[in-house]
Specification:
alpha/beta, 5 strands, about 20% strand, Ribonucl_H, DNA-directed DNA polymerase activity, RNaseH-like_sf, hydrolase, nuclease
């Protein structure tokens, strides 16, 4: 199993920054079998430059659940699955940090679609999500939003699975 994840945040991983949106697609290696998406009240101010990038503002998240309130589906959908994300350390470390604030240890095996793309699809100018998706004709709807970026990462991951002649992706 694979849990393909994307988050939006109030800033970089360091410091008191928090998650503002999360999307998870649980994938069995053939297709998506479950999913979860939610805005999250970060309980802190969302800077204007983040709002300009994501479209997520303080008013949008004021009545959203806190991370603690959505921790169960995050835990369930990532349990016994590879944690997959584009630039996985960013998404993984944020979620790990959110669980630490709940006094809970979060540990998952990780796969990075940036690293996999460089090895399986060598020679592209850029491996940012937007650029690699454009190069591979993957449509991204709702760019810089968790659900849209995670859905594009699912399509990218499926292409990687099909093209993985080097057996770089662990099979379920």
């Amino acid at each position: 199993m694979y849990a393909i994840v994307d988050i939006e945040t109030t800033g970089g991983v360091k410091g008191p920054t928090r998650i503002t949106e999360i999307a998870i697609f649980r994938h069995d290696g053939q297709r998506v079998v479950d999913s979860f998406h939610s805005l999250i009240n970060p309980q802190t101010f969302i800077p204007p430059f983040i709002t300009r990038l994501t479209g997520i503002d303080n008013q949008m998240v004021q009545d959203a659940p806190t991370f603690e309130e959505i921790a169960d589906p995050v835990r369930r959908l990532t349990q016994d699955a590879w944690f997959v994300a584009h630039n996985v350390s960013f998404d993984y470390n944020f979620i790990k940090k959110e669980f630490q604030w709940l006094d809970e240890y979060f540990n998952r095996d990780q796969l990075c679609t940036v690293r996999l793309s460089r090895k399986i699809f060598p020679g592209y100018r850029s491996y940012s999500l937007g650029n690699i998706c454009q190069s591979l004709d993957i449509q991204i709807e709702d760019r810089h939003r968790a659900s849209g970026d995670a859905a594009a990462t699912v399509k990218l991951f499926e292409m990687l699975l099909r093209a993985d002649r080097l057996a770089l992706i662990p099979v379920n």
